[in-house]
Structures are given as C-alpha cells and as structure tokens.
C-alpha cells in the first residue's frame, strides 16, 4: 500500500504542469524543428530535466513506493510530448536495478509508445538495457518478433564487431524487419554495456 495520499494521475498531471511552466519557447522551436514537428516539446534541456527527476523521485520514493513511481512514469510515457517521456525514464533510472520482472514487462510495452529515437534511446539505455544486463534472460522478451509501429524507419547499422542479434534463421536483422527498430537499439545498448 502506498503512503502517498494523492492519486497517481494527480502527480503525473502536476509534473506535466511543471514541464509547461518551466518551458523555454526558443528551445521548444529548435527541438520541434529537429524532429520535423513529429513531437511536441516543452523546451527543457536534459540537465534541468535530470534535476527535476531527482527531486521528484526522491520525494515519491520517500512518501510512497517504487510501484507508485512506476505508475506515475507510466502515465507520463504517453503521447507525443518529448520531455514527458524523458522525465518518465529519468524518474526511474536510479531505481532500474530495483525494478521487478513485472516492471520490465511494463517497460517493454512502452516500446509500442515510442514516437522518436530520443524516447527510444532513453528507454532502452536507462531502463530496459540495464535490466537485461542484470538478467540476460530478459532479452528474449525484447526479441519476441513483435512488430514495432515505426518499423522500417531508417536507423544506423551496428558495427560488425557488435552486430545486431540474429533471428532464428541466423541471418542479421535488416532495416526492413518489423522489429529492427527495437532490436537495433537494444543491441547498441548491450554493446555499450559490454564495452564494445
């Protein structure tokens, strides 16, 4: 049972208001231009988002629980507002090693909510990747062959020394593959963790 008196949705909405109130209009325009207006931005720089996430995650973990924090992050990791998704990941990043298998399953469903490489990179680099390093059996969940909504999007190829994992037929995953987006970035994450 959570010690937090406020509902999860209330805290998530409060964080959204903090993001709107701290927005930088010039930086918002730059970010939206960079992503070709596929996303909305509040104009936050990553360093400031990290500070905000540290402050709120400490308070939430002190007053409630990790499960409550995961529920707040789950509410934030929706829609097309870049900073909301980044904040969701940053709230959980320090606690990734404490997350349960159920949390990992939830984070894997977030892959279906990814709208840009930026939210994908954060999700895989700071949550899913470290959890796979702690329990390599989890990678089976990532490579289940489920298509991703942005499949076919052009993506950088991993280097030959740390190539993307192969499919069951022992052929490398190609950019035309329905799960290329997820497998490629997860491969990069595992490659970075392994020191390649």
What is the secondary structure topology, with strand pairs?
Layout: H1 8-21, H2 25-34, H3 46-63, H4 66-76, H5 82-92, H6 101-110, H7 117-134, H8 139-142, H9 180-194
Helix pairs in contact: 1-4, 3-5, 4-5, 5-7, 6-7, 7-9
Q: What overall geometry do the principal axes of the alpha carbons give?
A: globular
Q: Percent of residues in helical segments?
A: 55-70%
SS-derived structural category: mainly alpha
Backbone CA Rg: 17 Å
Number of strands: 0
Distance between the termini: 42 Å
Structure commentary:
There is one protein chain. The protein has 9 helices and no strands. It is mostly helical and 196 residues long. It has a domain at 1-100 and 127-139. Mean pLDDT is 75; it is low at 147-178.
